[in-house]
Structure formats: structure tokens, C-alpha cells
Amino acid sequence: MTVRPTIRMPSGGGSVGRVVGLVFTVVMLVLIMTMSVSSCSVTVESGYVGIKTTKFGPEPGVQLQELGPGFHWEGIGEKIRTYQTLQRTYSYTREPNSDGGENEEITFSDVLGLPMTADVALTFRIREDKAADLFAAWRQEFDAFIDGPLRTSVRAAIARETEKLPVACNAQQASEALAAAPGPDAAAVVPGTPDAQDCPGQLIGPGRQIVLQKAMQALQREWAPQGLEIIRMEWVGSIRYPESVLQAIQSRTTAEQNTRAAIERVNLERANADARIAQARGQAEANRLLAESIRSNPEVVRLREIERTLGLCPLNANTCVIGQGVNLSTLIESRNAQNEGNR
Questions:
Q1: CA-based nearest residue to 208, from 165, 268, 272, 171
Q2: DSSP states of 4-24 as a string?
Q3: DSSP 163-192
Q4: Is 68 left (phi over 0), alpha (psi -120 to 50) or beta?
Q5: Do 75 and 118 belong to one domain?
Q6: Whole-angstrom Cα distance, residue 304 to residue 134?
Q7: How many structural domains are present in the chain?
Q8: In whole angstroms, how far apart are CA 237 and each of 94, 116, 232, 306?
Q9: Could you tell me where the DSSP H helices lie in 102-235?
Q10: Residue 55 and residue 334: Cα distance in Å, rounded?
């Protein structure tokens, strides 16, 4: 006969097991509910608004009532996305920056079709009561909207204005200016300013700021009804002009400098010639007056002869010999001193 040992469970063991199981079940339910709430809710931060889209219900699609900052439940078939309403400055640049790593430079051309590029900084904000309408019109996330429709609009507005102006007034005729040097009476052309009646402005110089201001005003008229406020638009650095245009402008500037130098040389020669003519006229006038004085007063000639001979020789003598005891230099100095004293 085999005797098997009997194991006795402590009293109340079943109750402990049930408690442990109940606690485990509650913890799991809490975790599941937390995960469900986290995955089905969206928190809208301050400075943003929530935009809800639904697939079911009486009015599916974009709900035009914006959601303010706070915690919002995202039900079945619903999605809440956030749009920034704070003022923001976005830079469309060729080089990577904090706004993006790809090339976003703005391209445009002048009235002759010469291509150019530039970096542009745009400052804007979305009205809180128009964010849903803006999303309903374009159906793009906030960053995609900035990189897509807004950038296209900025480029188009700038291009419309730059296509009305040349990159530089008469810069394309620089080679002709070098071949035909202007005369001395030609007016000098100052780079950066209009130099013809049919040239209202240019992109090199103040014209580029005028173009940018007009483009910004066009953007404001376009986007204000949609709830996007354009606050400021600026060039980031200078416009990247075509190399051919820069070379033409440099050649024209060199030609203008050479022309100015030639004009200055002509003016100097003319002034020197005028001075010599004036001097000759003065000398001729002096000779004329002297001749008239001699003709009207013959004693002047005799006085000159006396001055030359110091009174040592007769006026009617053909030859005059001065003895060795006479120091002519001393006599001349004495006469000069006497004349100075009489003055």
C-alpha cells in the first residue's frame, strides 16, 4: 500500500489569487484605456488652432469651426491637424537653413528674359478664424502649404514685377559704348541710375527694392481674403545676376571712367591754351601801350639810354670807353639802391 503525501493550501489562498487577478485585470484595462485615449486625442498648443476633418456624419469633410488650445478627442473617422497662428518668418534660400534643407531660391527674369535668382524672407501669420477656410481651400499640411502654394505665389508676384524692368539700363549696349567713345560734350552715365527716357528703372540699384514692395502688395491683396496676412518681405543678400550682365556692366563702367578721364584731359588742355592766349594778349597790349608812349614822348627813349649808360657816356656818342678806375657793378648797385630809396 502506497501512501501519498498530502499538500494543504493555506487557508484563504483562493481569495489572494482572485485579488491578484483582479488587480492585474484593472491595470491592463487602465493601460489599454490610456493607450486608446492617447492614440485618439490631440493636444492643441498655444499659438496654434486645430482643424478637424470627418469622414462620417451629416457634414463630412473639413469642419470650419477651429479648435482652440487644449485637449481634443479624435473619434472614429476623424482627424485633427494643427495650424500655426503665430507670426512666422520663412526664408526661401538656395543654401540649407533651419526652415529646410533643399534649394528653395526664387527664380525670375528681367524684361529681356535674362534669368536671375535670389533668396527671399517672408514674414506672415494666419488668422485664427480663417485657418480652417485656408486648409479647406488647399488641403495641405502647414509646412507643405509654405513650401508649395505660398512659395509659388511669392515667385509669381516677384516675376511679374521684374519682367517689367531691365536688369540694368543699357547694360547690354556696353560693347557698343566701348566701340564708339562719346565726345567731350557727352553727359556721363552714373551706374545705378536711369540713363535713357525709355528706361524707367533697373534691378541693379534702388529698383530691386521697389520691385519687392510692389510684389508684397500684390501678395497682400491675393492672400488677405483667405486669412493669410503678409507682414513683410525682404531680399536675403543680393540678387544673383547673370555673369554676362555683370561683365557688361563692368565694361560699361570702365568705358565711362575712361570717358571722364578724356574729358578732364581735354578741359585741362583747353584751360592751358586759354591761359597762353590770355598771356599773349596781355603782352601784346603792353607792347602796344609802350609803343604809343614812346611815339608820344621821345624823351622816354633818351631816359632809357641814360639809365643804361648810368650817365657815363654822351647820348650822341657812337662809342663809349669807360676807364679802369670806374667800377660799373658798384655804380649799378648804387643806382638800384637809390631807386629803391626813392620809392
A1: 165
A2: ---PPPPTTHHHHHHHHHHHH
A3: TTS-SSTTGGGHHHHHHS---TTSPPPPTT
A4: beta
A5: no
A6: 109
A7: 2
A8: 11, 13, 16, 87
A9: 131-138, 142-145, 151-162, 174-179, 207-223
A10: 129
| CA distance linking residue 238 with residue 246, whole number of Å | 13
The residue count of the chain comes to 343
Q: What is the CATH number of the domain that holds 147?
A: 3.30.479.30
**Which H/E stretch holds residue 118?**
strand 115-126
Q: Are residues 128 and 64 in the same domain?
A: no
Q: d(Cα 132, Cα 137) in Å, to the nearest integer?
A: 9
Of the ranges 109-118, 139-148, 321-330, which one carries the lowest mean pLDDT score?
A: 321-330
pLDDT in tens, 105-122: 999 998 888 889 999 999
Residue 234 lies in a domain: yes
What are the backbone angles phi and psi of residue 82, rounded to the nearest 5°?
-110, 145
Q: What is the pLDDT of residues 67-79, one digit of tens each?
A: 999 988 888 888 9
pLDDT confidence bin for 273, thresholds 50/70/90: confident
CA distance 189 to 253: 9
Strand pairing report for 48-54 and 78-84: antiparallel
Specify the pLDDT at position 76. 83
Give, for 300, the enclosing helix (H) or strand (E): helix 299-309
Q: pLDDT band for position 305 (50/70/90)?
A: low
Identify whether 215 is part of a domain. Answer: yes
pLDDT digits over 4-22, tens only? 555 454 555 557 777 777 7
| Closest C-alpha among 78, 81, 75, 79 to residue 48 | 81
Looking at the predicted structure, is the pLDDT value of residue 82 above 60? yes
Q: Which domain holds residue 71?
A: 18-83
